[in-house]
Every structure is written in structure tokens, then in C-alpha cells.
Amino acid sequence: MATGVDAPGRAQIGLKTARSDRWWLAPLRIGVILGFFIVYATIRIFMNKWYWVDAYHYLTPLYSPCVTSSCVEGSSHLGTWFGDFPRFVPFSLITFVILAGFRGTCYYYRKAGYRSLFFAPAACAVPEPHKNYTGETKFPLIALNLHRYFFYGALIFGVLNIYDGLQAFHGDGGGFGIGLGTVIIWLNLVMLWLYTLSCHACRHIVGGRLKNFSKHPVRYRYWTFVSKLNPKHGTFAMTSLFTVILTDFYIMAVSAGWFSDLRIIN
């Protein structure tokens, strides 16, 4: 028996959609961006090199923290928790699991992924190709409900990134210094924190389930602040993707010797 838009009792239009606008442009654009980031990040985490610039203490966020003894000297700010990793195991395995889990379960990315990668549906008034709908109640989609727990992990990694950003104020030969890499790292930090703090889970944690805001003035202030950021969560989500790629690529290029860091101070 036909289901969905072809189910008995539904109007049989015959057309895929009656929309005459370029409805496919938005999901195509977002799909290209998501696809590029997935491919880029996958290649980079398996490279296991060009993630640390010792002269200026630049560490790419894709490899922070680097906690295996396989990491290059100086890049393990928190020490080495593990021994040598086999070459086929990414040094940034923990980082990848937590941050990919946070973005993958994010409400905005779920919408973007459903529309651009799975066409479920691709746009309003455009039938999806799937015959059955189970929502997020079965494996593997039920794992998307772990978003708030990945958010806690993202907060920890956000603090680690701030530490990495402070380390980036390192001059050539020691002392204080600022380079273009420092500026890029801190630009990425700002966008990552805006994305994290504008999260729906963050808004619920700071102010959810409160029956009376007047009895919780501090939480109410945080909730008000997050509520102002929340409408721009999608913008921060996509912008932070580009800043992460920019930061990683710049550090990779300097580390590989493709070009030198532009120094502003020292």
C-alpha cells in the first residue's frame, strides 16, 4: 500500500512539487558546505601531522588537546594520557568524538542534514523520498537525543581552546608576541563560543524548568543573554565551520612551511 503523499485519501497531484521557485538552491548550498567540511575534517584528523607550530605555540583546534605520546614535542599542553597511537588512529580521536557529536546532534545541523543530505524533506511542500517515518525513536537517530551531554563536553573543550589561545601569545624565541595566527585563533574562539552559548541546550540548562524567574535572578540573566543569542544560532553554526577550517588550514600551512606567519608583535 502506498504511503506518504501517495497514500490513499491524499490528493494525487502527479507533480513532485507545485513550487515554481528555486527551492533546491538552499539545500544544495548547505549540502555542499557540509560535505566539504566533512571531507576536509576527515582528511585532516587522519593526517596526524602539521597541527603544531612550536615557534609561536599554535595548536589547531582539530587536535586540541593532543594527549598521546605520539604528539610532537610541545603540543601536549595537558600531558600525555596515552602511549603511542598506531599510525591509522587519529591523535585527535577524543576531540573528534566529542565535537563531532556536539555538532552532529545539534538542532540546527539536524535540520540542515535532514534537508541537504537525506532530503527528509529537502524543502517545504516538497515530498521526501522515504516511505516510512519513525522520527528519532530508533537506532541510529535515537542517539541524536544525546545532544545536551555532548554540550557539556563541548564546554570543556571550549575552555581548553581558550587555554590554547592564551598560549598563542608567544613570541619568536620566547616572551610575548602576536601574529596573524594569534588573531585567527581568537577569531575562531569567539565564533566557537557564540555557537556554543547560543545552543538550545544551553538555553534550557540555564533557565529551563524554572517556575519563577524572580527567585533565580542570576539564572534569569544568563537565560536572557542566551535567549538573545539563540535566534542567530544557525548563523554562528555555519560561520564557526569556516573559522575552524581557516584556523586549521593556516596552522597547517605554517607548520608545513608553505609560508611564514605574519608577525604583528615580535
From TrEMBL:
Keywords: Membrane, Transmembrane, Transmembrane helix. It comes from the Bacteria. The chain crosses the membrane at residues 23-43, 88-109, 149-169, 175-195, 236-259. This is Succinate dehydrogenase. It comes from Kribbella soli.
